[in-house]
Amino acid sequence: MKKLLFVLIFILIAINFYLFFIDGKGKSSSQITIQLADSAETIEPEKSGLDEFQLIDLAFLQKGLDKKNMYSKRTDSLWFKYIKLPDSCSLSRYNLFFQKIMTDNGLTIDKASEFEMSKKMVYNFMVQDTIPAVVELRVTPGLESDLNINGSLCIIIYCMGNEWGKPWVRDILALPLPVVISILPNNPPAWARDTIIKEAAKNNKDILVSLPMEPEAGNIDKENPVKLVKGMNYLSIDIVFDKIFEVFNAPKGIINYKGSKVISDYQTMDQFFKKMSGTGLNYIEIEPGSDSYSALLCEEYKIPFISTREHFSEAKDLKENFDRISAEILSGNDILLVLNANEGMYSFLKDELTVNSRDINFLTIDQFIKQKK
Question: Is the pTM of this model over 0.85?
Answer without folding.
Answer: no
